[in-house]
Amino acid sequence: MFLLRRRRLIFWLIKAYFKKLRKTIFASFIFGLLVFFAVYFGWGIIVPGLPFNQHVVIGMVGSYTTDTLPSDILYKISQGLTYVAPDGTAKPDIASSWNIENNGKIYVFHLKHNVYFTDGEQLTSNLVNYNFLDVSVTRPDKYTIVFKLKEGYAPFLVTVSEPIFKNGFVGVGKYKVVSVDVNGSFVNSIELESVKDKNKTVTYQFYPTQEALKDAFVVGDVDVALGLNDINFENTSFNTFLNATVVKSIDYSHLVTIFYNTQDKMLSDRRVREALSYSVPNSFTYGQRNYDPLSPLSWAYQPQQITYQEDYTHAKLLLSQSANASGSAKINITLDTLPQYEQIAQIIANSWKNINVNTKIVVVDSLPPSYQAFLGDFNLPQDPDQYTLWHSGQQNNITNYKNLRIDKLLEDARQTVNMQTRINDYQDFQKYLLDDAPATFLYLPYSYTVTRKSVANIQL
Length: 460
Prior knowledge:
Blueprint: H1 2-46, E1 54-61, H2 71-77, E2 82-84, E3 90-92, E4 95-101, E5 106-111, E6 135-141, E7 144-149, H3 156-159, E8 175-183, E9 186-194, E10 200-207, H4 210-218, E11 224-228, E12 232-233, E13 236-237, E14 244-250, E15 254-260, H5 270-278, E16 287-289, H6 312-321, E17 331-337, H7 342-353, E18 357-363, E19 373-379, H8 387-390, H9 404-415, H10 419-436, E20 439-452
Parallel strand pairs: 1-10, 1-11, 17-18, 17-19
Antiparallel strand pairs: 2-3, 4-5, 5-7, 6-7, 8-9, 9-10, 11-20, 12-13, 14-20, 15-19, 15-20, 16-20
Helix pairs in contact: 5-6, 9-10
């Protein structure tokens, strides 16, 4: 009985308490609810502005040593004598100006006087330590450095955009290296700290595959997934993630290409190579169609009349006129492809089927020592010079292409420093190379950056 009365007393006391303070309790509840939602939805905006939360982890795919780190990272740490604009032209950076003498054999750079390494030491000519072969270097004074080349080399202004370092990774950039985590000879991660704001740091974490990077983003190991080929994740897409933003861009540094072995019995016939080129789709969902060997951003790029627009009728006519023509018999082609382009290889095979070409697709990890056709990509140099890829005397000429006219154009274009002469040479280079069709240029791949909204406002 006593316990029952006590419970009733407690019940009435609580009831009276709530009756008396119900407005205060209700107002507090509403206020707490508003604060919760404000913090929950505004955290990504509020926190980046606070000095204690300026750390971003960026994930990238690739295997890098300390000597082969991506340029995006290196240029945060230091600068070169020049920097390269999006169109491939060299602009002053550490060097305030330069003179080119003796038909491009002598380059004289005048350094800025107010450039300092992150350890406080002023940069002078004796600390510019490029190690070029067949180049002699003199330093007339603290702020002048002279490079003497054996032959004229027009891309040299782009070459000296390479960042300058001393004592490892001590540079003159906006960031300095805090730590480098290395596994054997490969870098797992590298952490950078802003020179002006010690509270602002960025860590680059490297992953072996695209899928591993996507997983790292989903579980929260990285804040930014950089350079993804697509935004698919399992049965969904990063576009559906409420806490992520997706930015799509074009990778102008790579050109996905079908290379033909021009010494192959079948593909030595230009008409067969042209027919295959005319049978490729006009568009790809994986990137921006690019029919030429140069980037459309390049100062040397000139639109060409030969674009190999999809034309099965013309392609069949070319095949019928080729030395390999044999009535209605099908032509057999083996197409080696890198794993990331296997779906593209299937698209190409389906297109070639329309002109009676059977395609055997073989997935390879790298360029085979011998092949018929190879689906891969190549790095578009910042300068339009592609001497090493197409000149008949170069080991990197993977198509075994031989054309004396192309050889001469490439030789002349890299030795003259006259811009208009170079433009004319590269215009002819594009024209004659496309006419010969040692390769079919496909597209500039799309690249996706996925960023967690909580760090989206941090300026790196």
